[in-house]
Structures are given as structure tokens and as C-alpha cells.
């Protein structure tokens, strides 16, 4: 989605930058960084062969700030890019490693305790 269209959807809602671990029964595991207004709804439509677990979440009513943060992460960590075996919406925003990305998140980020995660 283009920046202007995404910002127009804010309508007073809190925007969320998320980092999730995506994994499959076939032992594939990777990380995805993205933005949304509702994380659960965002991944209700993820492929049936993938599961996900939230690692970190940063929220703000300043949607432009969240948009810019996501773009900076994608630019700065492009060298860690990962291409999932199966395509899904957002498959181009995936990473093989996450430690450096988590370390780069701003103060105020809510970190969940990683489970079965190699970070």
C-alpha cells in the first residue's frame, strides 16, 4: 500500500509496527517486520502452512512516524532479507535474522518473551 493511502486509513487509530516470528511445520522459520492497526486481523489471512508469534510491538497515534520507522528498518536491514518458501501478503518484508532489528527499535517498544526463538 502506498504511504498516502495507509496514512489516510489512520482515522484516529493507533498504528503498530510489529516484529513477528513466522514458522512452519516444515522447519522453515523467519521474521517479518510490518505495520498495521490490528495485528490479529492482519494475520488472520496468512497462509495455513505458516504460524506466527509476536516478538515486539511499537505503537503510536502518529501513523507517519510508524510508517517512516518501518521504511527505515526495511532500508537499514535489507542485507538480512529472507524469501519465504511460500508467498503471502508481506512476504517481501521478511528477514533471516532479527537480533539487530530488535536492538534498533525505539524506546517504548513492547517486547514479548521469545518462545522457541533463536535470538
Automatic annotation (TrEMBL):
InterPro entries: Phage_T5_Orf172_DNA-bd (IPR018306). This is GIY-YIG nuclease family protein. Residues 16-96 form the Bacteriophage T5 Orf172 DNA-binding domain. It comes from the Bacteria.
